[in-house]
Amino acid sequence: MLTLTSPVETPLHRLRAGLKLAALALFTFALFWSVSPLWLGLALVLVIALYLMGGTTFARHGARMMRPLWPFIAVIALWHLWQDDLYGGAVVLLRMVAAVAAANLVTMTTRLSDMITVLERLARPLSPLLPPRRLALALALVIRFIPVLSERAAQLSLAYRARSGRAPGWRLFAPVALAALDDAECVAQALRARGGAG
Amino acid sequence: MTRPTTAATDGIVLTGACVTLTGRPVLHNLSLHLHEQRIGIIGRNGSGKSTLMRLMAGLIAPDHGTVRVEGVDPTRARKQMLSHLGILFQNPDHQILFPTVDEELAFGLLQMGVPKSDAQAQVTAHLARHGRSQWRGVSVATLSQGQRHWLCLQAVLLMQPRTILLDEPLAGLDLPTQTRLARAFAALPQRLITITHDPASLSGCDRVIWLEGGTVAADGPPAQVLPLFEAEMQRLGGLDADADLAG
User: Fold this and answer.
1) pTM of the full predicted structure?
2) pLDDT of B177-223, one tens digit each?
3) Cα–Cα–Cα angle for B99, B101, B105, rounded to 5 degrees
4) Which of A154, B38, B80, B123 has the CB geometry, 3.0–4.6 Å to B105, for a possible disulfide?
5) Test mutation, B100, B114, B159, B193, chain A, max A CBs within 10 A
6) Chain-chain contact of A187 with B107 (C-beta, under 8 angstroms)
7) How many structural domains comprise chain B?
8) Position B4 pLDDT exceeds 50
9) Is residue B76 part of a domain?
10) Which sequence ranges are marked TM in the entry (chain A) (predicted)?
């Protein structure tokens, strides 16, 4: 999520995160409410236009982000071709592509910290149970330590293979879990050294 | 280099401090008054150096005796301690808590009660002052090891503590990074307490304390303590006696 924010500054970067998320929710709702390929096509054109507003580099990056969607598009297209339901297929595909593209666009133009601020505000009613700052800290820690832990797992995997010649597979689970606990202990200390979670 | 006007509460004062970890005594009856500007704590692995650091930082409490940092108990007055003492841990990956550079830098300020917008402004100004404005919003995962060390140091410096504890600050870094960091340390106005097993990095200190088996083996200027330490390490290295287990 973090590396997904585009370094190319677009006019959309300057909009407030809450506004963008609300607009995204409305847009997606409208997509699911509409059953006309024409309107859905127009919606997709609108999203593409917004991408192009950020320049061609930005738009090309946006197109690359859609890559994981291709297998689904292929399956859905084949299914509807086989069912001979071109109309239905067009509706589903346009809806899906427009919705994912719009969501990606918001992700690409919103800094993570702004996203978290919105989440904090939305979680405010829960504050007696869950202090919003704790929640924000927890989210940040998760995002921070995903790459650290995956690197740790990769190191342990290398250490295993260096003495075994086989891939460790599930055998890595316990050592990685223990290493994570060990790291967590150190991180807790560093957090305490800078004023704790409060 | 001792300043004659040192008050008894100035700096870090340990009085008869003892620490036992998992049933094993690690520090025995340690009494020290640390007030010099550059202090080195040297010792072998397992001599109690890191425990002493955690004790001074208030991350652990002594079983007996007291610890005072600028007159306050470091385990109790946590918020006050933030402006008294900062720690630079050995591994930046254990210290960096946030996914982006500016969040990491702003965190300590927020913890000290600085409003969010002020903290952001301070971070932006700080990065600009060090010619690193392009670091704003950058993912910490993309920084090099040396850059992460620098980030950890700046996160501590932004909180403007009077004393900074450095845990093996140069271990495992390549030579240019070591030189750069050492230069950054030398220029700091703060009191620095460096914990290391490398005598060479302590030659510029005002005072060196050699810790052995949880007690002070020698305490004095580097020219006096470091040769003794090195001679003993040479002697131990000559023996083939690394078979004893701790505990």
Assistant:
1) 0.72
2) 889 889 989 999 999 999 998 898 898 899 999 999 999 999 999 99
3) 110
4) B123
5) B100
6) no
7) 1
8) no
9) yes
10) 20-53, 65-82, 88-106
